[in-house]
Design brief:
about 375 residues; alpha+beta; 5-stranded antiparallel β-sheet; about 25% helix
């Protein structure tokens, strides 16, 4: 299986499966002299790791990261300085229960990648989905922690802005609220709504989708290259590569089709310090595929988890008609844990374009 690497200069290769011994990544292209620590990487992995509330899968994985290469450890025994060589990181799997999947070893779960993997490769890892499992994304979160260090001052934050039929009230947006609730929602008024809604879905053995928004601030103007190396093009590609993502939009996205030209155009002025500012940000910080200096805003839709307890009609590898019911431990709303994954992928895309821009123009 190829295509396990993304990025041009900031290149990330992930490896491992859901029920394998371990998973991890190799980050190639990180400049030398970048300071980081395992604790900083672990903080992002802790946001994504399973089993933290009743609203996520009860698989208990500590997701403890080990940095294996690409650094020199400083005298404090904690701080690592990148050497410019590949940074390899590993996360061990400790709570696999492959027996939960024995009944569906030859059955195709509707909505899952079981059938397409079998058609393409002639073999599939039925144990938790193998490589198609969202378990793989832990390695991306680790890589994203390094990516954040590459661009000076870069801040990448994400939030869950919709779950099923419910959406947040944007007038109550509070970034400080995101880490104070199990849904990563920025709207304190939505917490009880999401909780009651997801409780009903979880107890019914079903699942529901979500919408996640990522905002990157302090992105330098000038990142991205026309016409086939656009920043928003790569952000969309990176986000679409996340398991269960079915749609991506930049800025106002599909809502911009409802706006007039006057409404959609982000007008400009000079601020008191002689720097250009935008009076709105319908474009999501990207114009012509190049960052404008305004916050980069991306949104993505996550479908409902395919592994549910409700029997669904399908077929098996022998072509026989079957009813599939998936046992095991699964997220009733996988969009919740997609928040730190989306942050990581946007950070990786911006870091890559930052290095490409610096390499092409010699300026940052």
């Amino acid at each position: 299986m190829s295509h396990n690497t993304f990025g041009h200069l900031f290149r990330v290769t992930t490896w491992g499966e859901s029920h394998g011994i371990a998973l991890g990544c190799v980050v190639d292209g990180c400049p030398p002299g970048i300071s980081f620590s395992e604790a900083e990487i672990q903080a992002y992995l802790d946001k994504r790791k399973p089993g933290q509330s009743k609203y996520t899968t009860q698989r208990r994985e500590p997701d403890q990261v080990k940095v294996l290469s690409g650094f020199m450890l400083q005298d404090d025994g904690v701080t690592m300085i990148s050497t410019g060589t590949p940074i390899s990181m590993m996360i061990e799997n400790t709570d696999q229960r492959s027996k939960d999947y024995g009944d569906i070893a030859r059955q195709y779960r509707p909505g899952h990648a079981d059938y397409t993997y079998d058609v393409k490769y002639g073999i599939r890892d039925y144990r938790g989905g193998g490589r198609s499992s969202a378990r793989e994304t832990a390695a991306r979160v680790a890589a994203g922690a390094i990516a954040r260090k590459v661009v000076p001052g870069l801040i990448v934050r994400g939030a869950l802005v919709g779950m099923g039929i419910h959406s947040i009230d944007r007038d109550r947006w509070d970034w400080d609220e995101v880490d104070n609730n199990p849904f990563f929602t920025p709207d304190p008024g939505s917490v009880d709504v999401f909780a009651g809604y997801l409780d009903g879905i979880r107890k019914a053995g079903s699942s529901i989708g979500a919408v996640v928004e990522i905002v990157a601030e302090n992105v330098p103007a000038g990142l991205g290259a026309p016409v086939y190396g656009k920043l928003d093009q790569d952000i969309a590609s990176y986000l679409m590569s996340i398991n269960a993502v079915k749609g991506v939009e930049i800025g106002d996205g599909f809502e911009s089709a409802k706006l007039s030209g006057e409404e959609n155009a982000d007008q400009m002025r000079m601020d008191n310090h002689g720097k250009p500012i935008f009076l709105s940000n319908h474009a999501g910080g990207i114009l012509g595929g190049i960052s404008s200096g305004a916050p980069v805003v991306a949104r993505f839709a996550v479908k409902p988890t395919s592994s549910i307890l409700t029997p669904r009609q399908s077929i098996d590898a022998d072509g026989k008609q079957v009813d599939v019911m998936t046992k095991g431990r699964h997220d009733p709303c996988v969009g919740i844990r997609a928040v730190p994954i989306g942050e990581a992928m946007v950070a990786c895309a911006i870091a890559d374009h930052y290095l490409r821009h610096r390499g092409q123009t010699g300026r940052i």
